[in-house]
Amino acid sequence: MTTFPGQTGRSSLREHLPAGAAALLRSRSHAYADIILPLGARELALVEAIDGRRTLGDLGAAAGDPSPVGSLVERLWWHDQIVFDQSRNASG
Fold it and tell me: Is 0.90 surpassed by the pTM of this model?
């Protein structure tokens, strides 16, 4: 099991994976431990690049193709794997 720096409460299982999966993400703080999100190698690389400072646009640019970032972020959100800090975007 691996934890991601800058990403509290998330662990990655990398053994006994289903076909096509590079890792399975599980939220340690979630009430249901059986809610697991399988990730392919490309998705795992994007998740590992999340550091709390980069924007979604930065992640897409680093990946060379921004198209999978939106769907991955939506899946992470639906599985309680990601939260968004909007404090820097406050208008005023």
Answer: no
Burial environment of residue 75 by CB neighbours within 10 A (0 to 12, 13 to 18, 19 or more) = middle
Of the candidates 10, 5, 6, the residue with the CA atom closest to the CA atom of residue 23:
10
Distance CA 85, CA 88 (A): 7
Task: Answer whether 38's CB lies under 8 Å from 47's CB.
Answer: no
With vertex at residue 82, the alpha carbon angle to CA 6 and CA 64, rounded to the nearest 5 degrees, is 80
**Whether the Cβ atoms of residue 16 and residue 24 lie closer than 8 Å to each other:** no
Q: Outline where 6-66 has alpha helix (H).
A: 41-49, 56-63
Main-chain dihedrals φ then ψ at residue 38, nearest 5 degrees: -75, 140
Return the amino acid letter for 72: L
Residue 46: what are its φ and ψ, rounded to 5°? -65, -45
Give me the residues of the chain with pLDDT under 50, please. Answer: 1-6
Residue 6 near residue 49 (C-beta atoms within 8 A): no
